[in-house]
Amino acid sequence: MDLSHAHSRNRPGLSPDRRRGSNLVLGLFLLPGEQRRDALLFADFCRTVDDLADLPGNPPERKRELLDDWLEALKPGNEEALPADFRNMVARRDLDRELLREIIRGMLMDVADSGQVRFVTFSDLEPYCRRVASAVGLLSARIFGAHGIAVERYAEQLGIALQLTNILRDVAEDASIGRIYIPREDLERFGVSEREILENTSSPSMTHLLNHQADRADSYFAKAELAWSEMSVNQHRLMRPARFMSAIYRDLLLQMHRDRYDVLAKRYRVPTLSKLLLLIRVMTARS
Length: 287
What we know:
By secondary structure, the protein is mainly α. About 65% of the residues lie in helices and about 0% in strands.
């Protein structure tokens, strides 16, 4: 695999492999060998652009420059600027370059000169979720070989559900670097200040606020389930890695609900044994 750690102007590269232990990798073992290799290469791309937006050390203008390199390289006619193995995979799977660019635009939304990422309304947050999660799901489905309107709707709705679950789980971690993804309109509705988020201050109002975020995530899981019910048996088989991710994140959401959303003091995860049991359940499901 052609992995380059150095990022030079107009020649973006993929970061060293840091996928081990991720939920995604376990789910991708449901794929045949060549598809799995392509899906892992796509995961490298997603991790790379995410790192460019998140890793400390680079000022915002440098982060934007590096992400802009990817945007430029993904324009038609600029393919030679892409890492060779990634470029070949994009062509082999006929991936939508505009969707790849949407992922990068989502990462750029994480880069603010002040370092303070904020969203006023959910209408502002939803496009971010579509870029950093739904676009990933749509491209993954293409790599899996799954097609159709119901597949696309499942990928879109599940992506938003997964991202909203991430936002809920990572409230304290994001606050530690000045980011608040919970819309300001929700904070005002439940009487919670930004300062309470940034200082990890628990209160009944905070619990109600976080419960509202969980309900919103749940509503998108329900929309994804409706799309799943409209998919064929073959589409279900092809989309098993996405189904595994859904099972993992629904487990996380249930854990947080049982604890009354203790996300300010606790980092939620699904134990390895539980992941394996969920994987077996997905593999043996009839539909």
